[in-house]
Amino acid sequence: MVSTRFSPGLPGAKNLDADDDLAGFRRRFHMPRIGKRPAVYLCGHSLGLMPRRARKALDTELDRWAERGVEGHFGAAGWLDYHERFSTPLAALLGAHPDEVVAMNTLTTNLHLMLVSFFEPDRERCKIVIERAAFPSDRYAVQSQLTFHGLDPESALLELDPDPDTGLLDPAGLERLLASEGERVALVLLPGVQFLTGQALDLKAFADVGRRFGCRIGFDLAHAVGNLPLAMHDSGADFAIWCSYKYLNGGPGAVAGCFVHERWATDADRPRFAGWWGHDKHSRFRMPARFSAIPGAEGWQLSNPSVLSLAPLAASLEVFAAAGIDRLRRKSERLTAYLEHLLDTRLEERVEVLTPRRAADRGCQLSLKLRGSAAATAPVPSRLRSAGVIADWRPPSILRLSPVPLYNSYRDVYEAVRALERALG
Asked: What pTM did the predictor assign?
């Protein structure tokens, strides 16, 4: 599908940048360099860039520690309630109520905690559905949970296949699977954006199917949060988990997050692995013998979060608040369409776009399958890097490019496609 909406060449890219009302946000991030030159960075789906204010945010907490020691927990902007300041900005990105989200732990830790609470196998329902190409960490977590419950993953783990014609996941496929297996399925776990193809799922449509068959439903939003607007509360999902080091720009290993729908907010009988930071705030420091969960997602916390790991995320969320997720989405659709246009017009015979063509079915990532033998495509990643482009390579032939609207420009996209042309020979 070839688009004719964009002017050709480098002048066309420069004109698009000149008309971009979000272009100034690029200056709020450190741009990586390869040698002495700035890199073209299209790898935000793997690790987002460092906000310039991250260092100051971290230094503020280091200074507080140095100057006040343990008393840094108390007073204005103290650490005791530090994590609470993330609820409102995260809720805005998640399309959730503030008490439905919490910044805590890491992604797979949070997935395990959610599986403890929402996977309750019995004789009738003892299976979990994931997509066939699930990210390995999700697969490993689910397999280990099944084993923990004395179940055999070979029979208790079901895989949702993509549509054979489109290669994409669709609610009709889930409905067919559950029509056959639904009475045996306890939980469905799917991605918000599929990491390999870049497909954005209609979360409500999938959740509606799962709930209609009596299944609990959860989503891994690692590639979705900060990438496109979400509506988690309205989706009806029971839970969701995400990391903060991709599109949220929280830094390597940043504190992750968790969504728990408000219908579970005060379910005191819900099984969970408890920790003292999830205990009622009013009696937490009286240290009673019995656990009493904080209502909402905070009740799933274990320990007080790492302030030093949260500080850079605070700096990034300030940028999101200033830019606005809806404005970012509008730029993202156009920026990704420009990438698609260049690939179609310049590399149509060499590259197959695996990601859906409809803007509503994708975020900013385009996954490309390079045509040709493995021997012919193997040098492409190193050639791209030599040309100053940082992207993501999945052997034997998939290249993932993500123009992030917060910090990528149309010129970045143009330069990346020109470099890919040269790399393909």
From this structure: 0.95
The two structure tokens encoding residue 347: 């590399």
pLDDT tens for 13-30 read 999 999 999 999 999 999
Tell me: do 355 and 336 sit in the same domain: yes
Q: Which residues of 282-300 are buried (b: 16+ CB within 10 A; e: fewer)?
A: eebeeeeeeeebbebbbbb
Are residues 369 and 234 part of one domain? no
The answer, yes or no, to whether residue 261 has pLDDT greater than 70, is: yes
- Residue 277, token pair as written in the block: 């930071």
Q: Starting at the edge strand that comes first in sequence, how are the strands of the sheet with 101-103 ordered?
A: 101-103, 257-260, 239-242, 216-220, 185-191, 127-131, 157-160
Q: How far apart are CA 235 and CA 367, in angstroms?
A: 26
- What mean pLDDT do residues 323-337 have? 98
Q: What gap in Å lies between CA 363 and CA 358, rounded to an integer?
A: 10
pLDDT at 303: 95
Residue 344 sits in a domain whose CATH number is: 3.90.1150.10
CB atoms within 10 A of CB 388: 18
Domain count, the chain: 2
Residue 46 lies in a domain: no
Backbone Cα Rg of the chain: 22
Report which of 156, 162, 165, 170 is spatially closest to residue 121, judged by C-alpha positions: 156
Same domain as 312, residue 329: no
Q: Are residues 333 and 314 in the same domain?
A: no
Q: How far apart are CA 315 and CA 221, in angstroms?
A: 21
How far apart are alpha carbons 353 and 125 in whole angstroms? 39
Of the candidates 36, 167, 42, which has an alpha carbon nearest to the alpha carbon of residue 420?
42
Asked whether residue 42 is assigned to any structural domain, the reply reads no
Question: Residues near 252 by Cβ (< 8 Å), separated by ≥ 6?
Answer: 47, 245
First-to-last C-alpha distance (Å) of the chain: 23
Q: How many CB atoms lie within 10 A of CB 261?
A: 21
- Structural domain includes residue 47: no
Same domain, 416 and 306: no
Which domain range does residue 215 map to?
59-320
